[in-house]
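Figure S4 source data
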Amino acid sequence: MTEPVRLMRRRQPAEAAVTDASLALFRLGEQCNNRCPMCSNSGRPEAFFQGEAELLRRADLLADRGFRRVVLTGGEPTIHPAFWAVVQRLGERGVAWDINTHGRSFADPAFTERALLGGLRRAIVSLHSHRPEAARVISGFSHGAFEETVAGLDQLVRAGAWLMINCVLTTHNLDVADYLRFCAARFGSEPRYKLVFPSTGGKGGDWEGIQLRLNDVRGPVAQARAVAAELGLRLAFESLPNCVLDDPSADDTSRSGFGETHYLDDLDGERLYPIRAIEAALSAFPDSCRGCRALPRCPGVAESYLRRHGASELTPFR
């Protein structure tokens, strides 16, 4: 039986001022044409879809509150019937946009061109394996969708878009060194690459593929870092404590690490929450991490993980 763990949390203000540098997470709904068994969305029916008029109102609200940049996300934002209307409204209000996407819509060259002409700044695209069969299991999509995601990445690379390729670690894709070799050969060294320790907090939290321990990923991540250094790739991490990375200086590229500062409530479309406060509420540190020299930059661990597995896998830097 795991011994009870005494936990510490970061304290973050419940409010954050909007400045010229602020970046809001703007969710268009949880609708998606992938069926990821590990989906981290809530699964709440009322969060599934918002109509065009409501999304345009939210775009205006963000502009009125001083945001000059947003991240469009979902579900899958590009399949929303109001996607281009939202993009147009953001442009009219002088608001630039990034996107978090599975990338399939970008397989159409005309879609990619229109997005870049319409103000797209950065794209985070999820590709969870270089092996089609593993990618299909992880993302729950039909035959052909893996090929669409890869083709979408091809188009974004060809168009010169700022690109981050996102890979959530599962029991099905720990061959991440081979994954990076595939990506480097296909997409080059210009994109950023990110490895993510999975969250079990969403509707797909019980899926067997993400029942990983931190120790399960130490070796694969170390191999990935060696390959990235060999190939000159920029490799980022999310939700991986510094001691698991064996690097006290590594930064976590979570939402706040990507630059997001605020989250627009996806139900009422009114309230804004500081991203750092949300992250602080969802992560924790065992008392044994007190005094660790990596603590100021470490993302911590999900409280549910520490309650279930304890803190024996964490080795603070002294």
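Figure S5 source data
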Amino acid sequence: MITLHQGYVSDKDGVSTLATEIDIGDKGREVRLSVDSEYGKFFSPERADYALVGMLAYALRNKHDIICEAPVTDELLYNIQEILIPTFVRSDPRNYHVKIQADVAPPLEKLPIDKTRRGGVGTGISCGVDSFYTVLKHLDTRYACRNLTHLCIFNNGSINSVYGLKNIPRVKQEVFARSEIVAKELNLPLLKLESNFQDVVPQNHSRTHTYMDALPIYALQKLWRVFYRGSGYSFRAFTLNKNMTNEPSHFEALLLDCFSTSQLKIISSGSEGTRNDKINFIADKPIAQKYLHVCLKRGERNCGRCDKCLRTLIALDAINKLDDFRESFDIDDYLKIRNYAYIYMHDKIARKDGAFYLESYQILYKRHKEFFDSITPETERLFKI
């Protein structure tokens, strides 16, 4: 049994913290989310919404029912209990049919940001491909109600989980600093959030990242009308197969629809296209050319050798945009190893592990057919990156 206790907000030294005691079995732990005090008024401790979405994947996998001391917004509870959980269980019987005990309540009233806006429109700014695509697509659209009002950086487990436990303070400083620079250049406020959730409720980040992003969005639900979540996969990759262990990006369309209400719409941004579509979109944007950062090794500059760097460089190569990204990548180094990068891509495609490379491969194969046809298992074994 999981018990989500009533949350409370405290303020100290310019920081507002939303704390919630969560009991898992007979063991309690305190989850904390902290923001600059100017955003503390948007915390929503009077609802269990944020804790519920944050603990849902854990409950499904570990066979726990959930008791909420605070009420849950009626639309959200209906979506989770009546649509999402039954769908997950039917699609992957390893999931537990979680029963949620909670009072229901109508949506919370939002606080006005100013006299002309009654709700914020936000997205994360990690400076990766999905992030830049979402930001640059929603800066100045024909739809006034969909234009961004805030950028966000949520340190809710991804830095520790994706980039390992080494040099976490340095990595976090670099991520936050880059986001601050981009937000300033785009003249948008940056909301920074810190959380200990992943420390006290450890989970596999690659299997829970959509839930982890929904948690801070709902913790600050009084602020948002719309929140865009940059997705890594196309809607065409949608599947509920093995949803307990599959990356949630594959079924994010359903997940975020069920996490949305009439007051708060969470949109899977970028799912309408492919990774290459997004790279094409940002390739001519100076701010992306200067600050694009995809590297798994997380230095001040992209390393150019990890898988995410290589697939991005190869995609830029395919559309003849390498020179435009010299501020964010060492393009000369890539040109020195380009044949090896092509062999690496060829091997990924042959092993059916190259979904993110496929479009680039199809373009580059036509351009360098003789080279690709000459690749043998021996040359692949010689390749080291």
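The two ends are 47 Å apart (CA to CA). The mean pLDDT is 92.
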